[in-house]
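To: structure desk
From: M.T.
Subject: fold request, one chain
Message: Could you run this one when you get a chance? Sequence is below, nothing fancy, just the single chain.
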Amino acid sequence: MGVSTSSPKSSKKGPGKSGIAVVTVDYPPVNALPVDGWFALADAVRTAGRDPDVRCVVLAAEGRGFNAGVDIKEIQAQGRSALVGVNRGCFEAFAAVYECEVPVVAAVQGFCLGGGIGLVGNADVIVASEDATFGLPELDRGALGAATHLARLVPQHLMRALYYTSRTATAAELHAHGSVWRVVPRAELLPSALELAAEIAAKDGELIRLAKSAINGIDPVDVHRSYRFEQGFTFEADVSGVADRVRDTFGTSARKGA
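Reply: Done. Structure tokens follow.
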């Protein structure tokens, strides 16, 4: 359980010389990450990107779904300290993916929710299984955030509709919008992501790093500042009591009105 890094073998370049690092998240049962999990993920991605032998990182997950966001139970148990911790942890993990010195390919299966959207929205390429779904259930969980990253996956008005309703979009729908590279059967997910990563990793290592920096430099939105702005409203919801009111209904059929 936790975050691990591995290197697939390459028959062309010899064992361990594929130029690919696979960072895998495994937090049963649903990959809802605790505070330390977000920081561990950030450290793993940054470390992989700094490795001069790595030219592409694949971000993957074990289990039914790619990511279910933050551990709501941890926040309920520890209160404001956990909220501050998870805000900082998510910021670091999302930033690590965006700032990774080499391209990041996200291999997404099952549910990709909340913090998962922050990760894939900041990734360079997404490969998804046919059963993958993407969404921000934040309003149902007493939080706000990652609209910055959802807006990188779908058009503006669809982003707003998904955000306000907490609905999800399928991998096929995101593929139609051009934000998912390929949609494949679940069994083919990691092989397909590795195939794409191998194509990227075949490029010159120094040049691919320059390319990543250049592309980030022309982004029209500063994802760090934009996401940090959103997080301020999550904290406002918490100190005003709105977040607790909504979180108290998490996991139940009852929903209290505002």
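Reply (cont.): Confidence is low (pLDDT under 50) at residues 254-258. Let me know if you need anything else for the meeting.
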